[in-house]
Amino acid sequence: MQKLKWKKIRTFERGFMATHLINIGSKLGVFEKLNEKKEEGLNVADLATELGVHEPYLKFWCQTAYHFELLDCDDQGKFKLQPFLDEILDKGIKFLDIGCGNGSLIIQFANAFENSKFVGINPDVHGVDAAKATISQLGLEERVTVEHIGGEKISYKDEFDMVSMVVTLHEILPDIR
Fold this sequence. Notes:
Strand 1 and strand 2 (79-81) form a beta hairpin. The protein folds into 2 domains: 2-87, Winged helix-like DNA-binding domain superfamily/Winged helix DNA-binding domain (Arc Repressor Mutant, subunit A); 93-171, 3-Layer(aba) Sandwich (Rossmann fold), CATH 3.40.50.150. It has a 4-stranded parallel sheet, with helices on one face. It is of the alpha/beta class. Helix content is 49%, strand content 14%.
């Protein structure tokens, strides 16, 4: 039984790390650049040059993204997006962030994935107000919304392609979880 509990915790940790990795890749513009070169792919040196980032750090990021199955890599060391990321960049998805705080994750994702829509919910009115202000300032109101509700009041059903609870699970009371 103890082994199963640790396996579950490792699954949560893996999800958190993958989300963090995606967040970094979004900030750097890695996904957009690889989507532009989706047919031929890019090696780390060329990708670093195109993005203006430090090659050794980008190499580590690409290798980690490959490990998390976000990227593919061919025999020549050229990285490409996994097909599902290609589709998300081109067609978009609807994404829900439970416990969105000040909206930083969904705002960063909105900047990276321009064809997608994002909804954040949070029980803290101050976080929601801060998120709304930033969303308005960046002109993202058509694609990013936030709501002041707690997880126990979620009424969504099958409206989202992806749901994230990056830093929320430990905050939810066990009987509600």
